Amino acid sequence: MDAAGDQQLTGTPPPLKVGWWKRIRRAVVLYLLVPYLAVVIIFVVLQRKLIYRPTVANDLRVTTVGLDAEAVRDVQIQTPDGEKLNGWLMQQAGDDGAVQRPLVVYFPGNSLNRYERINDLREVVRCGFDVLIFDYRGYGDSSGSPSEQHLASDAMRVWNYACGDLGYEPGRIVIFGESLGGAVALSLWTSENANPPQPGALILNATFVSMPRTVAGLYPLFPFQYLLLDRWPSIERITRVTAPVVVFHGTEDDMVPVAHGRELAEAAADGQFIKIPGAGHNEIPLLRLCAELECLELLDK
């Protein structure tokens, strides 16, 4: 008796054949959809760790890192929620303070810490400016964890510290932000801030129009731009800036396309766009920045 006859006698149904369409659907789910959803979930959970990439240090006080105490001074801000923001005020060594020099408030990018920017800070000081820099929450030896809400509120505290505690005149302060730091600087002009700063100028380097636009450009196949907790809408905030705005951007920036810088400059009430041929992300030549600072004529006031 053949196999068909055996199955009829025993009552066992014949095996079902899996169609080719079901095989394709199963493969799509297992090898495409599941990994895709896993990447999306990982991004949602870890997005702030991907955006904010600090270099943490136990102690960056002037005496600890071996800086000249005549040229660099430790500064600190305590936030209402109990965090401590540590930074430096850098000045020309031997300056007796008889003539107050203009100040650059430096908002750094999304990585490293203030010590790893020491050469850039010294370059600005050599051009005749004092420099004030604080590490963001969770960066360097500052406590806490970074987020748009916290960094934006801290930026206003830094501005108030420069004008109030340090006594610099607002019109002799230049606010400088690189990449994410440009977005942090522009958070001083949120719609909720009824009394935004009135600095002598705002200078941006490689800053994006918004975080969703940036993420969408970097990861076009994923819906990350709709899932962001921190959106940093710089293009909206720059329209409220009445001070002169200078926007630097490299033509070879593969993180934030040069079009972002051009859009920001065009959206500003008094904006100037400076394209740096061949420069990548955050590859601004500091000498070019200092030349632009000198053109602001703050040194003669």
TrEMBL record:
Annotated InterPro entries: AB_hydrolase_fold (IPR029058), Hydrolase_4 (IPR022742)
Keyword set, alphabetical order: Hydrolase, Membrane, Transmembrane, Transmembrane helix
GO MF, any single term: hydrolase activity
Domain Serine aminopeptidase S33: 112-215
Residue stretches spanning the membrane: 28-46
Family matches, as Pfam families: Hydrolase_4 (PF12146)
Protein name: Alpha/beta hydrolase family protein
